[in-house]
Structure formats: C-alpha cells, structure tokens
Amino acid sequence: QVQLVESGGGSVQAGGSLRLSCAASGYIYCRYDMFWHRQAPGKEREFVSRITSDGNTHYADSVKGRFTISQDNAKNTVYLQMNDLKPEDTAMYYCMIGSLCWSENYWGQGTQVTVSS
Q1: Could you give the 3-state DSSP secondary structure of residue 106?
Q2: For residue 24, which of 1, 45, 8 has the smallest C-alpha distance?
Q3: What is the block-wise mean pLDDT of the chain (117 residues), using blocks of 10 residues?
Q4: Residue 71 bridge partners (DSSP)
Q5: How many CB atoms lie within 10 A of CB 33?
Q6: Cα four-point dihedral sign 61, 44, 87, 68
Q7: Which of 30, 54, 81, 83 is surrounded by the fewest CB atoms within 10 Å?
Q8: Residues 6+ apart with CB under 8 A from 5
C-alpha cells in the first residue's frame, strides 16, 4: 500500500503562481514514476505532467513552458511549480504514483486550484 498526500492548492489570479506538493509514504521500495493529473468540473481527468524514476519529465501541451515538475527522492515527494496560471487551469489536481512492482496505481485525494480572471 502506498499513500499520497497533496498540498499547495489555493486560489490565485490569472498570471499568478502556485506550487503543489505530493508526498508518498508506505511500501515504496521500487522504482516509480509520479504523475499529476487534473479534472475540471464537467470534464474528464487529464494528464498534466510526469516525472520518471530517472528524472525525465513530460508535460501536456497546455502547460508546457508554464509548469515544472520536480522530485525529491529522499523525501519521496514530487512538486508541480505552476506559473502564469490561467483560468482554464482551474481544476482539482491529483497526484498519482505508478510502478511495475505494483498491480495498481495509487492516487492522492486531490488539491483544488482556482484561477480567477
């Protein structure tokens, strides 16, 4: 079992910044990738960013150049630095961890990000 706890969400005006954190705990003895997804009201959950166990990063086109994912392996924590936020970034942001060692992926409870124009 792996537990994920997100933090750092909030309300900002367009152009502002937020930094999300996601701390993983539990049975973490494998190489893993960590992801951020988001879900806006009335929309499906969508991929935002990924960081692999090797430190490679991937981004959705909609956030490329504005969001930066990073990790602190010693703390099993992943961060999402979000700059130049736009109203369309408003969503619940979810952290996810996945590994070939596990039969399932694990999700956090989500943290709300609201961007006003």
Answers
A1: strand
A2: 1
A3: 94 98 90 96 96 96 98 94 98 95 92 97
A4: 78
A5: 19
A6: negative
A7: 54
A8: 22, 23, 25, 108, 109
Task: For the beta carbon of residue 94, count every other beta carbon within 10 angstroms.
Answer: 21
Q: Are 79 and 20 in contact (CB under 8 A)?
A: yes
Can you give the pLDDT at residue 30? Answer: 86
Q: Minimal CA–CA distance to 117: which of 97, 81, 89?
A: 89
**How many whole angstroms separate alpha carbon 13 and alpha carbon 33?**
31
CB 49 within 8 A of CB 60: yes
**Amino acid found at 103:** S
pLDDT computed for residue 103 by the predictor: 86
- Is 48 exposed, middle or buried (CB count within 10 Å of its CB: 0-12, 13-18, 19+)? buried
